[in-house]
Amino acid sequence: MALRITSLQEYHRLYEQSLRDPDAFWAEVASDFHWQQPWTKVSEGGFARADFRWFSGARLNISENCLDRHLKSFGSRTALIWEPNDPNEINRTFTYRQLYEEVCRCGSMLRQMGIGKGDTVCIYLPMIPELVISVLACARIGAVHSVVFGGFSSQSLADRIRDSQSKLLITADGYFRGNKPVYLKQMADEALEQCTSVKHVLVVNRSNFPIAIHAGRDSYWDQHMAKSSPVCEAESMDAEDPLFILYTSGSTGKPKGLLHTTAGYMVYTGFTFLNVFQYRENEVFWCTADVGWITGHSYVVYGPLLNAATVLIFEGVPQYPTWSRWWEIIDKYQVNILYTAPTAIRSFEAHGDHHLQQASLRTLRVLGSVGEPINEEAWHWYYEKIGKGNCPIVDTWWQTETGGIALSALAGVTPHKPAHVGWPLPGIVPVVMDENGNAVTDTQTEGSLCLARSWPGQARSIYGDHERFIQTYFSRFPGFYFTGDGCRRDAQGYYRITGRIDDVIKVSGHRLGTAELENAINQHPDVVESAVVTLPHPITGESIVAFVVSPDEVTDRNKLEKEVMDLVARTIGPIARPRQVFAVSGLPKTRSGKIMRRILRRLIQGERQDLGDSSTLLNPEIVDEIAKLLEHQPVRTD
Ligand code: WTA
């Protein structure tokens, strides 16, 4: 029986047990899964060398736990419902047995193409069933999946393929996002011009857009699947064998490939899905995240399927054909749990409640939020208008690095509080650090959020660079995992996340690094240097503002500003396009040459009088110039 926490008392009891004897706690949680061979040690290692391991000695396959294990009792239960972008196109559904068969065929197909245990497969697909099938098929044959969000550019795709040394790429000919065509295969082709590791490309026929086929390299998914064996034995994996690499942005320019391994990730995502959402048998769960992000990995694919849940995936966008689309989908499939991001909630709110008029939404039982802080106004709108005042909201804090939800209410079990993520999950030990690196013991406090102890879902490394992993997460506060977030803790011990305190930014819940954006901008031949800062934005949370320095000869500043925006969108992806670009003759710097972003941030917020300590400022004339420029060309806040 899966370990389900059903009352407040039980939460407190189990939380305490998880601190007193973590190994006993996690062994009990793990006993619900299917193991080919049991573990010899529940946990070992530590933060100093970041050599923590979970369930050592165990052997298992996560796809067996997501599929085979359920066939006897739930073979005919719906596992996956796919709603296409176009509401007039026919949807697709898969029972657990059908999904199992597709995954087996896909696993056989990959093996046929020479992919085996330890090989990396890059998946660059829209939100279609083949995405879920590919992920599970990789897991089945022991291949490491590296999913790249379909909205990333060919350059971002190329960087990720090269870093992960992917041998095979799964993509689609193209697709529609709303009424906009996306030429995915064309972008994949451009990326592959720079990559030598990919020997085969499998193309899912989704749009019938004309595409180039490279003989000997490209072939169609359907043709192979039709002749693939429906029998595909699951590879026996060690608990710590890699399951996937997922790239995410950090403080430095290059996105890092976080590496997750098999057993701990499985136990953690399975446990958190069941308990945070309090999932009940036969409920329909809809997580609106793309599988290209960690939320999609953990709560579209693994967490729900480990619990034999029915998962809905949607290919389209919230506004197509109208802003009512999501609510129509919820009524059509009788969705019980909706898990989405504050940006989406704020967009709906901004477009007006009349889009909700036709919707019943009566099947909804639990609402979730993830990816960025949710402001109180959006929280109340979500609670009243979508939840009709009777669905608990779980505001779930976690990261690509944590693998699964770490701080959150448990729906209907522990209290929810607007704009607060609540209490830690069992096994999670949050610590608030002050500026001097001392853990603050007062309940009511504010500081940097760290976690004091390993948990099973924790990322194990940065692919190919363990030293960077140690440096990034375990060196600032020795003995602790540093999250990069600031937080507050109130008198009841509820946590509130105040946002990133490093150079990571969140735009519409998408994680980007300022250094990564600046690298892209600096590729422009007329840009000498640049600085990226963000402005609070009512819908997207933050919006990107870039300052670029160009040589004096460049006179057409408007042209340059527009080119810089396009360059970023092309290099990283449309999600990274700056909202505004300002061409300036210099940037405020310290005497030692460091760009003072703090001053730029104040200037765009119109706080010219309040620039803070500027005694180290080398070039006050630049501050005057920028302030004047901003008077004539105001910063856009819409
Ligand atoms: C932010 C997304 C406030 C936070 C799962 C974190 C949140 C970063 C919340 C990780 C939340 C995530 N409230 N902030 N409920 N959830 N964040 O890796 O800054 O894309 O560090 O993982 O998102 O982003 P990532």
Word description of this protein:
The protein has 638 residues and is an alpha/beta fold. It has two domains: 56-426, ANL, N-terminal domain (Rossmann fold, 3-Layer(aba) Sandwich), CATH 3.40.50.12780; 504-632, 2-Layer Sandwich (GMP Synthetase, Chain A, domain 3), CATH 3.30.300.30. 32% of the residues lie in helices and 23% in strands. Strands 12-11-8-6-7-14-15-23 form an eight-stranded mixed sheet, sandwiched between helices. It has a seven-stranded mixed sheet with strand order 5-4-17-16-18-19-20, with helices on both faces. Strand 19 (366-370), helix 13 (376-386) and strand 20 form a beta-alpha-beta unit. Helix 9 crosses helix 10. The chain is globular and about 75 Å long. The protein starts with 7 loop residues before the first helix and ends in a 6-residue tail after the last helix. The structure holds 5'-O-[(S)-ethoxy(hydroxy)phosphoryl]adenosine (WTA). 5'-O-[(S)-ethoxy(hydroxy)phosphoryl]adenosine is lined by residues 248, 293-295, 369-373, 395-400, 421, 483-485, 497, 500, 506, 511.
Oligomeric state as shown: single chain
CATH homology group of the largest domain: ANL, N-terminal domain
Low-confidence stretches are none
Bound molecules: 5'-O-[(S)-ethoxy(hydroxy)phosphoryl]adenosine
Order of strands, widest sheet: 12-11-8-6-7-14-15-23
Q: Briefly note the CATH topology name of the largest domain.
A: Rossmann fold
- Large-scale geometry: globular
Span of the ends, CA to CA: 51 Å
Rg for CA atoms: 24 Å
Q: At CATH's second level, what is the architecture of the largest domain? A: 3-Layer(aba) Sandwich
Beta-strand percentage range: 15-25%
Number of strands: 30
**Whole-number count of domains:** 2
Please tally the helical runs, counting DSSP H or I stretches of 4 or more residues. Answer: 18
Q: Summarize the biggest pleated sheet.
A: 8 strands, mixed
Going by helix content, strand content and strand pairing, the class is alpha/beta
The CATH class assignment of the largest domain is Alpha Beta
Question: Helix amount, in percent?
Answer: 25-40%
Rounded average pLDDT: 96
